[in-house]
Write a structure and sequence with these properties.
alpha/beta, Rossmann fold, 2 domains, 8 helices, 7 strands, binds nicotinamide-adenine-dinucleotide
Length: 279
């Protein structure tokens, strides 16, 4: 049983777990044996995540908590300790973008994105790490970044927050290594979430994405998060792992060459999928 459930007896906080990638991660960790604090501002959807966790025989507590508020961040850690008596894992998943490129974005929106995507995860990880060290727990911290940390998307506030998050992970990995606490980042791109696709349909076709010509699935990000919090990734810390079907590797020049190659390879008997216009 223990190798089937490597997280049995452990406790995780997953932020932004009411839906999307956060829900998939929370449920995946529960499937692996962890009890979960489901933290989000979306009160309506948190019970759905909690029910899915309980369906795996694990305990879930839902907590209305806003990453922009320091007191709410403290409450997340307090809740984990009060409800489950320990804290092993933090997944900083909650994240937002805001409209407006460099010329249009407002100070208020810049602040909101930074508070949610960078400062909140900073404060939560700091508080959690202090508790882990006090309890002698070899904790794990995972931060959900984005390919837009390095691939421009006309949203400099979001990109700046996410690249900051990746740097935070590097520094946490160094400072927490002596305590056996690991910190890693996941850099997703093109993941199909319900709100954006406006459907639960498994049809995630996307010709822009080189690998399999489709969007990624929240469950695929969750599998990576699971790997990063189990002993299978024991020696991995301070890393950022991209999961995007090679979307962020496709450039205009690569695409042009790919089209030329496609003709040659077709003649050689290797027909290939040609990605659509670069995003
Ligand atoms: N979907 C993608 O393709 C993609 C790509 C790159 C990065 N990401 C990142 O993945 C993470 C999850 O995004 P998603 O795609 O599942 O989106 P989503 O909107 O479905 O989920 C985000 C969750 O975070 C919650 N949230 C937002 N602000 C919050 C706050 N202040 N406090 C607490 N919770 C808050 C929302 O209520 C929501 O439940 C985000 O950090 C996002 O930047 C997603």
């Amino acid at each position: 049983m223990s190798n089937i459930q490597p997280l049995l007896g452990q406790v995780a906080i997953v932020t932004g777990a009411a839906k999307g990638i956060g829900r998939a991660i929370a449920v995946r960790l529960a499937e692996s044996g962890a009890d979960i604090v489901v933290a989000d501002i979306d009160v309506a959807n948190m019970p759905v995540t909690a029910q899915a966790i309980e369906a795996h025989g694990r305990r879930a507590v839902t907590l209305e908590a806003d990453m922009r508020k320091e007191s709410d961040i403290d409450r997340m850690v307090d809740q984990a300790l009060q409800s489950f008596g320990r804290l092993d894992i933090v997944v900083n998943n909650a994240g937002i973008n805001a409209p407006g490129g460099f010329l249009g974005v407002s100070r208020q929106d810049i602040r909101s994105v930074f508070d949610t995507d960078l400062i909140g995860p900073f404060m939560l990880s700091q508080r959690a790490a202090r508790e882990m060290i006090k309890a002698g727990i070899r904790g794990r911290i995972v931060c959900i970044s984005s390919i837009h940390s390095v691939v421009p998307h006309y949203c400099p506030h979001y990109s700046a927050a996410k690249i900051g998050l990746e740097q935070l992970v590097i520094d946490m990995a160094l400072e927490l290594a002596p305590y056996g606490i690991r910190a890693n980042a996941i850099r997703p791109g093109g993941i199909a979430i319900r709100g954006r696709l406006e459907t639960d349909s498994p049809d995630v076709a996307n010709p822009n994405i080189p690998y399999e010509g489709r969007n990624g699935l929240p469950s695929e990000v969750a599998a990576l998060a699971h790997f990063l919090v189990t002993e299978d990734s024991h020696y991995i810390t301070g890393a950022t792992v991209t999961i995007d079907g090679a979307l962020s590797r496709m450039t205009y020049s690569a695409l042009a060459r790919r089209r030329r190659l496609a003709e040659e390879q077709h003649d050689l008997g290797f027909p290939i999928h040609i990605p659509g216009p670069v995003l």
